[in-house]
């Protein structure tokens, strides 16, 4: 097989980085939060905190890898907007702000707080200063004080931390009291913070999250995660999220590496490899990676983030098992991303999704509050960190 590291590096440096740098807004601050399918930017659109956090994380990590000062400058610009997204009265970050930085949607979501922690921790490690670490630590304490109970992490709150309904992280016709997705990304945010701050309480929180994953979220019979739960962790729907399972299969390895607990790794890693194996059989087609299976019906749309996470999940599975099928899947996934999912138009990046036949879903924009450089940028950087080729 031909080496693909050079292509992936160019994807990062010649496509993704220039595209997102081009969305910098020096009038209002931050980065433009919406670009429609026709590649028209909308600077008047509200700025989602999740999108801004992911942009901050992306440029911070890219700077640490490439040492290009313009990336650190972009990270500082995103950091300034994130500070404007912070509620100085009640703590936490809002869901979104208007372009001028005033609150638009004041909902406080645990998932959103976790991504801000992730971004601030990366910015600190990139050289952003002690203020960024202090802000990340404050958000961590807010989550532990406001966003959890004895059984795990809660979801949505009003601006002053009263319980709110969870429309933001509920889909497929259910209203979830707890979600796999929020738990996964609290773990991710806490892992990023632990990289910067080796706090024993934080370490114990990460172990608690892995315990919840193992005993409440992971379905040992079906070798998958359940997705939406009531408050007692009863699953609300027969849903197999292929994308989240393959993402979890490698992302949780990062947490295990940071914790460096051999007994814990020996207990959790087999579950991660079982998910990678299950999704390889159920979702990997050789022509992209399917989205999810709800009540036995597979959604065959090829979502941008799912394709990126599949490549990393198979890379991790190959490294841990040495099974050639996973190595081949990495190459196949990259070819699909490069030839089908990537928008061929000048000045764009990836389509939000393509149909099974490869035609793009034109009703979806190129940038919106969830469409960001985090999944595909992370795919490039993680691949390069792991040696740059197989």
3D architecture notes:
It is built from 12 helices and 16 strands. By secondary structure, it is mainly alpha-helical. The protein has one domain (5-385): Alpha/alpha barrel (Glycosyltransferase), CATH 1.50.10. The strands form 7 sheets. It has a 3-stranded antiparallel beta sheet with strand order 1-2-3. Strand 2 and strand 3 form a beta hairpin. Helix 2 runs parallel beside helix 4.
What's the arrangement of secondary structure elements?
Elements: H1 5-21, E1 47-48, H2 49-66, H3 69-84, E2 96-97, E3 103-105, E4 108-109, H4 110-128, H5 130-146, E5 148-149, E6 152-153, E7 156-157, E8 178-179, H6 180-196, H7 200-217, E9 218-219, E10 224-225, E11 228-229, E12 239-241, H8 242-259, H9 262-282, E13 292-294, E14 297-299, E15 302-303, H10 304-321, H11 324-341, E16 353-354, H12 374-385
Antiparallel strand pairs: 1-2, 2-3, 4-7, 5-6, 8-11, 9-10, 12-13, 13-14, 15-16
Helix pairs in contact: 1-12, 2-3, 2-4, 2-12, 3-4, 4-5, 4-6, 6-7, 6-8, 8-9, 8-10, 9-10, 10-11, 10-12
Question: What tags apply to this protein structure?
Answer:
12 helices; 3-stranded antiparallel β-sheet; mainly alpha; 390 residues; single chain; 54% helix; 16 strands; Glycosyltransferase
CATH architecture: Alpha/alpha barrel
Oligomer: single chain
DSSP strand tally: 16
Envelope shape = globular
Q: What's the overall average pLDDT, rounded?
A: 97
Distance between the termini: 9 Å
Strand content: 5-15%
Order of strands side by side in the largest beta sheet? 1-2-3
Rg, nearest Å: 20 Å
Could you give the order of the helices and strands? HEHHEEEHHEEEEHHEEEEHHEEEHHEH
Whole-number count of domains: 1
CATH class: Mainly Alpha
């Amino acid at each position: 097989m031909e080496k693909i590291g050079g292509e992936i590096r160019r994807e990062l440096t010649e496509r993704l980085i220039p595209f997102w740098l081009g969305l910098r807004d020096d009038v209002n601050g931050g980065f433009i939060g919406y670009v429609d399918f026709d590649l028209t930017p909308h600077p008047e659109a509200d700025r989602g905190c999740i999108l801004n956090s992911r942009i901050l994380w992306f440029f911070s990590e890219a700077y640490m890898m490439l040492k290009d000062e313009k990336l650190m400058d972009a990270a500082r610009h995103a950091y300034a907007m994130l500070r404007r997204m912070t509620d100085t009265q009640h703590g936490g970050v809002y869901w979104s702000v208007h372009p001028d930085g005033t609150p638009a949607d004041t909902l406080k979501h645990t998932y959103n707080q976790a991504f801000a922690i992730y971004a601030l921790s990366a910015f600190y490690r990139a050289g952003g200063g002690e203020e960024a670490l202090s802000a990340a630590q404050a958000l961590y304490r807010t989550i532990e004080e406001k966003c959890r109970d004895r059984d795990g992490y809660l979801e949505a709150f009003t601006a002053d931390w009263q319980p709110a309904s969870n429309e933001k992280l509920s889909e497929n016709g259910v209203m979830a009291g707890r979600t796999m997705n929020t738990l996964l990304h609290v773990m991710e945010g806490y892992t990023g913070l632990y990289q910067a701050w080796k706090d024993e309480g934080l370490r114990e929180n990460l172990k608690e999250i892995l315990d919840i994953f193992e005993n409440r979220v992971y379905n040992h019979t079906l070798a998958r995660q359940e997705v939406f739960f009531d408050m007692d962790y009863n699953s609300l729907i027969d849903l197999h999220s292929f994308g989240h399972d393959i993402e979890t299969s490698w992302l949780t390895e990062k947490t295990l590496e940071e914790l460096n607990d051999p007994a814990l790794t020996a207990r959790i890693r087999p579950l991660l490899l079982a998910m990678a194996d299950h999704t390889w059989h159920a979702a990997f087609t050789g022509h992209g990676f399917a989205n999810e299976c709800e009540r036995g019906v597979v959604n065959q749309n090829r979502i941008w983030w799912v394709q990126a996470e599949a490549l990393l999940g198979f890379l991790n599975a190959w490294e841990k098992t040495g099974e050639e099928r996973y190595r081949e899947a990495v190459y196949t996934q990259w070819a699909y991303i490069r030839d089908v999912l990537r928008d061929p138009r000048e000045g764009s990046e990836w389509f939000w999704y393509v149909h099974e036949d490869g035609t793009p879903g034109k009703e979806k924009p190129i940038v919106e509050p969830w469409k960001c450089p985090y999944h595909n940028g992370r795919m490039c950087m993680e691949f390069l960190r792991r040696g740059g080729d197989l």
